[in-house]
Amino acid sequence: MGPAGGQLPPFRTEELRQALEEMRALYERNQADVSEAKSGRTDLIFLIRFRHCCLLRNQRCLLAYLYDRLLRIRALRWEYGSVLPNTVQFHMSAEEVEWFNRYKKSLATYMRSVGGEEGLDLTQDIKPPKSLYIEVRCLRDHGEFEIDDGTTILLKKNSQHFLPRWKCEQLIRQGVLEHVLS
Fold first, then answer.
1. For the packed helices 94-113 and 45-80, what is the interaxial angle rounded to 10 degrees?
2. What 8-state DSSP symbol labels residue 137?
3. pLDDT tens digits for 68-92?
4. What is the maximum span of the chain, computed from C-alpha positions, in angstroms?
5. Sheet containing 177-179: order of strands
6. For residues 11 and 93, what is the distance between their CA atoms, to the nearest angstrom?
7. What does DSSP assign to residue 44?
């Protein structure tokens, strides 16, 4: 599994709201004390600085939480593809769903722009393959299949072939071929 491990904890809306409310209260108290400090109450400066440090700490914590979730969601795109399971989507906020949709569209646009006419599917081999050719077994009659050098192969049920990995991965996903592991 990827960095996300296929999991996304529920979005903590209530905790986020509480932290933002605390930050708002700290800010308002600081604003009031700054007005008093300007009029000569220098004893408040330490308290103002302390509250400001609390605000900055809360801000860092909230941003770290949100950034961690975005990294997990990005990893889930690479792990699951462009459609996330309902169990994962259930734990996402509306803003995270919107971000995920923009990210997958951006990734798809980029993959279409590189790699020639067909584009380049960057999600195909997350780990480098051990070999460029694999042995496959045909699970159903598919007909003729042409490889790069112009050779045509008849994909007939139960026939086995040694083919370029990248040429048959789509057929493996479609259930036409299966990878034969020795």
1. 50
2. E
3. 999 999 999 888 888 888 889 999 9
4. 91
5. 160-164, 133-138, 177-179
6. 6
7. G
The DSSP call for residue 175 is T
The span from the CA of 75 to the CA of 3, in Å, is 6
- Using only C-alpha atoms, the chain has a radius of gyration, in whole angstroms, of 27
Q: Is the CB of residue 162 less than 8 Å from the CB of residue 147?
A: no
Our CA angle for 91, 15, 92, nearest 5°, is 15
**pLDDT attached to residue 33:** 94
- Supply the pTM of this predicted model: 0.67
| pLDDT tens per residue across span 134-180 | 999 999 998 898 887 888 899 999 999 999 888 887 788 778 899 99
Q: What is the mean pLDDT of the chain?
A: 88
Place of tokens 């939480």: 65
Nearest residue to 95 via CA among 177, 16, 178: 16
Q: Are 77 and 9 in contact (CB under 8 A)?
A: no
Those residues with Cβ within 8 angstroms of residue 37's Cβ, 6 or more apart along the chain or in another chain: 44, 45, 48
Q: What are phi and psi of 162, to 5 degrees?
A: -110, 105
- Find out whether 104 and 77 touch, Cβ atoms under 8 Å: yes
Cβ–Cβ < 8 Å for 133, 161:
no
Tell me if 156 sits within 8 A of 114, measured CB to CB.
no
